[in-house]
Design a protein that fits this description.
Length: 367
């Protein structure tokens, strides 16, 4: 039996998804384990985690060796536990007896730097690091509207829209599914609010793009790519995420809703629909290879595409640990496919000759 391990930062993270994977593991001749990186005993190199029992269909506490194939579903934050787990995962990636389904992507700023000189450059919003408040005020002088976001952010957390009016400044964000809006009467007041924010974590700055529909709801296209049982990239599904009127986020975690891509496409002029589909095909045809040429091998990619009022198409975000909500809500018939995908690809990796995998490990060490 192949030992298939799933790593999370908390025991209940994505538990329904992980359980569905585990229920099918036996038919793939696999044993399924779940653990937190900090549960590895550094002396014995054994893990105190959970093993899935196919007879009771339950996770049970267990102690076991580190599984030979790992599916990393850890979402790191700025907390101490994340900082504790990161070096452990780096150590696991350096071991030549362990294979990861996917080795992850760097932060948003590094991703931009790696893609800005490729054929996909026209689809990337101009992006720069927020090294100080001066950069923000300089951009506001020329663009009037900007977005700042954490370089390690996910699910829309910590994104701020800033607009310069004649004398005042308008700041907008979304927290706990609520739009929070504030007017600062002058630059001094904005600076007082801004400084603690940009010194607490690293931010990037982009121009504000008019990415909303006729109802002034922000929306984007979420596309899920995964590798199949032969190790080849393919699209699993795509859907439209729609946010609140007047908001800045379309994320489902921020209160957004999902609709099918087909339904959305049918509501726009045929010429525009053909153009969008052609552009999406081009992006999806180039992106996986470009990423794997520059970084470590991946298993899945979540791609967020924005379409501005003027018809321009933008790659808004790339995620190596994507969620499945949009695809499951818009194409529920894909449930089994999505639950089986990690197992199929794990089986493929396990069957790959050791010498073929060696180059992956060497690349891991070089990073």
């Amino acid at each position: 039996m192949i030992a298939f391990g799933i790593m999370t930062l908390t025991p209940d993270s994505e538990i329904s998804y992980l359980t569905e994977i585990a229920k099918s593991a036996k038919t793939f001749e696999m044993e399924c384990f779940q653990f937190i990186p900090s549960q590895i005993n550094p002396h014995t190199q054994r893990v105190y985690g959970k093993k899935f029992d196919p007879k009771s269909n339950q996770w049970v506490d267990d102690e076991f060796p580190i599984p030979s194939i790992l599916y990393d579903r850890c979402f790191y934050g700025d907390d101490e536990h994340s900082k504790q787990c990161l070096p452990i995962v780096s150590w696991l990636k350096s071991r030549n007896d362990i294979t990861f389904l996917g080795y992850g992507l760097p932060n948003k700023l590094e991703l931009y730097e790696s893609l800005k000189d490729t054929v996909l450059a026209p689809y990337l919003p101009p992006t720069q690091a927020v090294s100080g408040s001066d950069i923000i005020f300089k951009e506001l002088e020329t663009k009037e509207k900007i977005i700042i976001k954490p370089i390690n952010g996910s699910q829309g957390h910590g994104i701020y829209y800033i607009k310069k009016n004649d004398k005042t400044f308008h700041v907008k964000t979304e927290k706990q599914k609520q739009i929070i809006s504030r007017i600062f009467p002058n630059k001094v007041k904005l600076l007082k609010w801004l400084k603690p924010l940009i010194t607490s974590k690293q931010y990037l700055l982009q121009p504000y793009l008019e990415l909303f529909n006729q109802e002034l709801q922000p929306f984007d296209i979420r596309i899920l790519l995964q590798k199949n049982e032969q190790g080849n990239w393919g699209e699993r599904g795509r859907g439209i995420r729609i946010g609140s009127t007047g908001g800045i986020l379309s994320n489902l975690s921020a209160g957004g809703t999902a609709t099918t891509f087909t339904e959305w496409l049918a509501a726009i002029p045929p010429k525009a629909a053909d153009y969008i589909c052609s552009e999406l095909d081009y992006i999806l045809g180039k992106l996986p290879q470009l990423l794997e040429d520059q970084f470590l091998p991946l298993f899945e990619i979540g791609i967020d595409i924005g379409i501005a009022k003027n018809g321009s198409i933008w790659i808004l975000d790339l995620n190596s640990k994507p969620g499945r909500k949009v695809v499951l809500q818009t194409s529920p018939e894909l449930k089994e496919t999505l639950y089986h995908a990690p197992l199929f690809y794990a089986k493929h990796l396990y069957g790959t000759e050791k010498h073929e995998r060696k180059s992956i490990y060497e690349k891991t060490l070089s990073h």
